[in-house]
Each structure stands twice: as C-alpha cells, then as structure tokens.
Amino acid sequence: MKTFHISLPFSQEDLKKIRAGDHLLLSGHLYTARDEAHKRLVAMKNSGQALPVSLKNETIYYVGPAPTKPGQVINSAGPTTAKRMDKYTKDMLELEVVAMIGKGERGEETRRLLKGKAIYMAALGGVGAKQAQSIIKQEEIDFHDSGMESFRRLEVKDFPVIVINDWEGNDIYEKNRGTWHQILNP
C-alpha cells in the first residue's frame, strides 16, 4: 500500500495506477451529493435536462455538511454510507463520474459496475470535523432548497481517503475479510 498526492480531477493514469488499500491525499475540486442530490441529478439526466455542471471525470463525495457557522469555510463534513447511493451508480457512471467517496462497502452489483470505469474511496466516518479542515472553499451549485443535501463544489487540499475499490475491481474489504475473521476468531 502506498500514499499518493492526487490533483483532482483524476487523470486516467492516476486512476489506473492506484490500488485498493492505497492512501490518497486529494487536492483540487470535487462535488457533494447525497440521496436527494443523486435523485435530482438522475431525474435531470433521464428527462434530458442539462445538469448544473458536467460530471465527466469528476469525483462525488457522499456528504451533507452540517450548517456552516459564521467564520467557517464549512462545518463537519463526514461521509455518509455509500451503499445508499448504489441505486444511482449506473446513472453516475453514464454521466462519466470516475470516483466516489463515502463510508463502508459497496454492494456486489456496484462493485461490478465500477470495474474499469471508476474507483470508490472511503473517508473516515466519525471525524467529520477533521475532514472539514481539508476543505478550503465551498460553493452551493444547485438544489438550494435541500439544505445540507444541496449539490456543492468543494475545493480540498490534502483531503485523506483510502481506496476501497480500484480500477481493476480489487476490493480492500474483501481482501482483508479473511484476515479479520482469523483475528476475531482465533
């Protein structure tokens, strides 16, 4: 396992060289979308409406930041459970999203869909205030009526994530499942 400093958006070269288990420090921009934003983006896509931005080669972070207090760039910004977005993954891949960030593992069908098209990374759950320190700017793009589930653009610097599903379809949870079983059941 290696640590890579990655400039977003991802290049094809970066996507293909990183492996499940690698640690990444992301710098650049990414977009936020939870359940409501995904639902609206997919509805726009399916009805032929133009999206607020092109998602080609972009990264989506499954987060709904807590309301920002005066003087803050952003409040706590920890990841939400990724499996909740599995039902939107096919559509996001059709929009050419190449990377997704959440917490927890993805379903079997989603892992199959990701192979050769996108990667999935985990941000640490429970440390949203710490994650927010890597966010240097935020801009609400659309779905303003959705509060914390609005669609946002974040500028990040050294935002820490771990690659869970890589371009080749490797899954770090699956790889380590046997090891954890042995540790927990000696």
Short précis:
The chain has six helices and seven strands; from the N terminus they run E-H-E-H-E-H-E-H-E-H-E-E-H. It is of the alpha/beta class.
**Which CATH architecture is right?**
Alpha-Beta Barrel
Instruction: Tell me the domain tally.
Output: 1
H/E series: EHEHEHEHEHEEH
What does the largest sheet look like?
A: 5 strands, mixed, barrel
Biggest sheet, spatial arrangement of strands: 2-3-4-5-7
Shape: globular
Strand segment tally: 7
Which CATH class?
Alpha Beta
Low-confidence stretches: none
Radius of gyration from CA coordinates: 16 Å
Mean of all residue-level pLDDT scores: 90
Q: Given the helix and strand composition, which structural class is it?
A: alpha/beta
Q: Count up the helices.
A: 6
Measured by DSSP, the beta-strand proportion falls in: 25-35%
What is the third-level CATH name, the topology?
fumarase
Helix content: 25-40%
N- to C-terminal distance: 26 Å
Going by CATH, the homologous superfamily would be Fe-S hydro-lyase, tartrate dehydratase beta-type, catalytic domain
